[in-house]
């Protein structure tokens, strides 16, 4: 399940470069090209799924793997215990790449609510 026109599918397929920090059977994590914090990593499923709304029954293992990868990325970057996990859904929330991704942001103070 890949979309040849999808930016993150092309990163998963190694057609486009990325600074990969974690590579599993089902999940890839790479640094955001436009980081919004000292640590800013994107955790994505290798299969093309448009957003978190596409996750449901049958995705239990993938969901667990995504969250486990987020925690591993946080630990590896020294931000465990103080990071934010964000996923945007749709243009109103600021989603600009239609391939599910969990932002892992850390290394600076965060404010709430987000903009
Ligand atoms: P969204 O706005 O969809 O929640 O997040 C998309 C993220 O992907 C943005 O933070 C943006 O900086 C990042 N991004 C866009 N294009 C690329 C790219 O080609 N490589 C990497 N590593 N990140 C990208
Ligand atoms: Zn994709």
What does this structure look like?
- The protein has helices spanning 7-12, 60-76, and strands spanning 20-23, 27-31, 39-45, 83-86, 102-106.
- Strand 1 (20-23) and strand 2 (27-31) form a beta hairpin.
- With 115 residues, the chain is an alpha+beta fold.
- The protein starts with 6 loop residues before the first helix and ends in a 9-residue tail after the last strand.
- The longest helix has 17 residues, at 60-76.
- The protein is globular and about 35 Å long.
- The protein has two helices and five strands; from the N terminus they run H-E-E-E-H-E-E.
- 20% of the residues lie in helices and 22% in strands.
- The chain has a five-stranded antiparallel sheet, with helices on one face.
- The relative contact order is 0.22.
- The structure holds guanosine-5'-monophosphate and zinc ion.
- Zinc ion is lined by residues 3, 6, 8-9, 48, 99.
